[in-house]
Write a structure and sequence with these properties.
DNA-directed RNA polymerase activity, mainly alpha, Alpha-Beta Plaits, 33 helices, DNA-directed RNA polymerase, 18 strands, globular, three-stranded mixed β-sheet, 52% helix, nucleotidyltransferase, single chain, transit peptide, three-stranded antiparallel β-sheet, DNA-dir_Rpol_phage-type, Serine Threonine Protein Phosphatase 5, Tetratricopeptide repeat
Length: 862
């Protein structure tokens, strides 16, 4: 696409949108004087000032030919300029179309050992883009790549001890990178800053390119060799059509059927299929470049952003640039990306065999039958009611087929990617969403995925298990299996020892044996951990066995943990394991018990609710678990009802599903409000505050305790109409900051978004503590992973940072922030004179919970 833009001369007109920034000089005199170290006394300093001032004036007056003799005379005197002075003269010569002199000066920079910065490259690239000189552009881009690689080479030498000998870093990766970069390029910045095209420009350019494709690409003249119809020879390969979707027509670029037939025949003749993916969609074979600011980090050459935002969501980007310091946030992201991974080959080989043999539904490997269900056929002379019923059935089956096909293709991508990285170390660069929740950038191979995908990944650098590591591996197996997940740690340890024969059978004969691992909640991870345990036990020295398995410590309904801590809610704290106990509390079972008690009252009292009688014996932990888990993150009644309906399906007649799920969802919401009264009040205060701010014409924003600025990107829908060469387009945008905030969305999203920002802060703080101690650490939101030998130390950091986080007056600080930024603003409504009232006055009161007890709670994270 870039090549087409350059050759079609579309790029030059857009060149002003591309710029490269250099490090700002400390003072104006620094820019004028150049290198002060060569100025031995005041007179030489004055001479330098005089010469450079003259050069600067002549260049400003576009008299480059007069400036050059002064420039050369000064250089012959043994003085050396900073790149910016060279850039001014190079740019002056190019403006006068004297490319030869500009290039001679550019090469003299390198001869004088003055490293060109990206301003130099930007000037030359812009000139070559205007002239269409592709060879010079390629040459300059290669030079830019070499600069980055020189810095990266030194960076890798600094951090490689981390992977070879588990040596702890004395500085953070960010500090190491910045120090090396400044040593190499003290006069400028290495990273390019590219302004994105406005969305409208992107659509117009894209439309022009599509028009070129539609009007130029034709089927080959020898199409007859592919057994196509004679009349198809020479026809256009693609066509622009319209598809009717409800009441609107949508533009569509379709492939000519004859081209599709040609492609199918060629594909079937090919020896093997291959995937072509963008470099940002696959893991890295080298450690990622550390994040140094909001736009520079992760991949070495592919542009990335530290925060995932909507295309036109500029508000968050502006806040990031204005932030006081993002160093703690960036350092935690860099540490999460620093340690390598490897593929578990035994699990991979087994999964590939099952996939190639047609799949296994019980192991979440889709079979062909799952996405090839036949559709019911319409019958002649049927009444309208039957026709509607058949239509609904066909729609449901089509949807199910499409979803299952998508699942199979996703798995194919994952297995193919794992096979590609077999026997290799690879790295997963991370970034975050606008709330601070962290995700790997490559989508197809990461630990934030399904049970099978997680079982395929191991730490790339192993560590000896140690005595505690061996115990934690056994506890981990019992937790993954689920049979003893709510038992004490000692009971889980004893359980694993008691079934060691079943574990050995699963590890040795996973498909032919008794299949104990298949009964687990997460069978693939259970199998992978079982194989690791048996390898350790059979090694003869389990404590010195080099283990690569990740051991997980999961928060107990982590969102409610944060709410209980903010509200100092004693009763709620007991339900989510904030206080010490002999066994973990079972919140989901407790909610199910309370819901069933309410159901019994409805079934036997004067109410005589029929649906309550039908649900006799059907209410248990699994039915309510997902709704309880997600209600704190903003699940609506509709979403909660669908979750419960999915669990009830098959246990009661379908005709009662809607009524039963609606009834139970209401009871779940009611029960949670009773159990977590203080949490509900905090949620209501957050929602009410966000609504006030939105009615005053502002999106809700705050700064997390770790220093990340957050703004909710929910605005009223904007519609922009543009006319391209192909068709008219409507650009819909819900994140346009020029449009008013959406009060409904701002209100409903505030409680879950705020608690998400807190759980991400807690994770980042824990990561920073692990970095100080040199403990390999990764996380899936509120699930923290480490080597078995490091779990006890990681647990200590996790609890200490949670207590430290909530020892701050989080809600009071938030109320003060709202008060300072939005207090007293007028509502932008039809009512005159109404103002945003005080946020502090409505702040919910706190209970009596002592946060320090969390440090002794075994099952806070377990």
């Amino acid at each position: 696409m870039i090549s087409i833009l350059l050759r079609s001369r579309l790029f030059p007109s857009l060149c002003p949108a591309v710029y490269f920034s250099s490090r700002a000089p400390e003072t104006t005199s620094d820019k004028i004087f150049g290198d002060r170290k060569r100025c031995e006394d005041l007179s030489s300093l004055q001479d330098e000032y005089f010469v450079l001032s003259q050069i600067d004036v002549l260049i400003t007056q576009n008299k480059v030919q007069h400036a050059e003799p002064l420039f050369n005379r000064y250089r012959r005197g043994g003085h050396q300029f900073k790149p910016d002075v060279y850039n001014q003269i190079i740019e002056g010569w190019l403006k006068q179309d004297n490319e030869l002199k500009a290039h001679l000066l550019y090469h003299s920079m390198i001869t004088d050992d003055v490293s060109p910065n990206h301003n130099t490259y930007a000037i030359l690239l812009s000139h070559h883009a205007n002239s269409g000189n592709m060879s010079e552009i390629d040459s300059l881009i290669n030079e830019m790549k070499l600069q980055i690689l020189y810095v990266y080479k030194d960076y890798f030498e600094h951090i490689q001890g981390l992977f070879v000998s588990s040596k702890k870093l004395e500085k953070s990766p960010r500090e190491i990178w910045q120090e090396i970069k400044e040593n190499h390029y003290a006069n400028g910045t290495l990273e390019p800053h590219i302004l994105p095209w406005p969305r409208k420009v992107g659509f117009l350019v894209g439309s022009c390119l599509i028009d070129i494709i539609l009007s130029t690409l034709k089927l080959p003249k020898d199409a007859a060799a592919y057994k196509t119809d004679d009349e198809s020879v020479g026809e256009f390969a693609f066509k622009h059509t319209y598809i009717q979707v409800k009441e609107r027509k949508h533009g569509h670029v379709a492939v000519q059927y004859s081209l599709y037939r040609m492609y199918t025949r060629l594909r079937n003749k090919a020896a093997a299929m291959s995937f072509n993916m963008d470099s940002s969609e696959i893991p890295m074979r080298v450690p990622p470049q550390p994040w140094t600011d909001a736009t520079n980090g992760a991949f070495l050459l592919t542009p990335s952003s530290v925060v995932r935002t909507h295309y036109d969501s500029f508000h968050q980007q502006l806040l990031l640039k204005a932030a006081d310091s993002l160093s703690p946030v960036l350092d935690s992201l860099n540490y999460l990306s620093l340690y390598p991974w490897r593929v578990n080959n035994r699990i991979l080989d087994m999964a590939i065999d099952i996939f190639n043999q047609g799949g296994d539904k019980s192991l979440d490997i889709p079979t062909d039958e799952l996405f090839d269900k036949p559709l019911p056929k319409y019958i002649k002379d049927i009444d309208e009611e039957t026709r509607k019923k058949i239509y609904k059935e066909r729609f449901a089956i089509k949807k199910e087929n499409a979803e299952n096909f998508s699942l199979k293709m996703t798995l194919l991508y994952n297995l193919s990617m794992c096979n590609h990285f077999r026997d290799c170390l690879f790295w997963l660069p991370h970034n975050m969403d606008f709330r601070g929740r962290v995700y790997p950038i490559p989508p197809h191979l990461s630990h934030m995925s399904s049970d099978l995908s997680r079982s395929l990944l191991q730490f790339g650098v192993g560590q000896p298990l140690g005595r505690r590591g061996l115990e934690w591996l056994k506890i981990h197996i019992a937790t993954l299996h689920g049979a003893k997940s709510k038992s004490s740690l000692n009971e889980r340890l004893e359980y694993t020892d008691s079934i060691i024969d079943d574990i050995a059978d699963s590890a040795d004969k996973p498909l032919e044996g008794r299949g104990w691992w298949r009964t687990a909640d997460v069978p693939w991870q259970t199998l992978a951990a079982s194989m690791e345990l048996m390898d350790a036990l059979r090694s003869g020295d389990p404590e010195n066995f080099i283990s690569h398995t990740t051991i997980h410590q999961d928060g107990s309904c982590n969102g409610l943990q944060h709410y209980a801590a903010m509200g100092r809610d004693v009763y709620g704290a007991h339900q989510v394991n904030l206080v010490p106990s002999e066994k973990p509390a079972n919140l989901y079972a407790e909610v199910a018990k309370l819901v069933d008690e309410k159901r019994k009252v409805d079934a036997t009292s004067d109410k005589n609710v029929e649906i309550a009688k039908i649900l006799e014996g059907k209410v248990h932990r699994k039915v309510v678990k997902q709704t309880v888990m997600t209600v704190v993150y903003g699940v609506t009644f509709v979403g909660g009802r669908l979750q419960i309906e999915k669990q009830l399906k098959g246990t009661i007649p379908d005709k009662h599903l809607f009524e039963a799920s609606s009834y139970l969802c209401g009871l779940v919401f009611e029960s949670l409000s009773e159990m977590f009264e203080r949490s509900r009040k905090i949620q209501d205060w957050l929602a009410s505050s966000a609504r006030k701010i939105a009615l005053a014409g502002h999106p809700t924003q705050w700064v997390t305790p770790i220093g990340l600025p957050v703004v909710q990107p929910y605005h009223r829908k904007s519609i922009k109409k543009i006319t391209s060469k192909i068709q008219r387009l409507q650009l819909l945008n819900n994140s346009d900051i020029t449009f008013p905030p959406n009060p409904v969305k701002q209100r409903s999203a505030m409680p879950p978004n705020f608690v998400h920002s807190l759980d991400s802060t807690h994770m980042m703080l824990t990561a920073l503590d692990c970095q100080k101690s040199g403990i390999p650490f990764v996380a899936v939101h509120d699930s923290y992973w480490a080597h078995g030998r490091n779990i006890d130390e990681m647990n200590k950091f996790c609890r200490e940072q949670f207590v430290a986080l909530h020892s701050q007056p989080i809600l009071k600080d938030l109320a003060n922030f709202f008060e300072e930024n939005f207090g007293g603003l007028p509502y932008k409504t039809t009512k005159e004179g109404k103002m945003v009232t005080s946020f502090l006055k409505e702040l919910p009161s706190q209970g009596e919970l002592d946060l320090n007890c969390i440090k002794d709670s075994t099952y806070f994270f377990s």
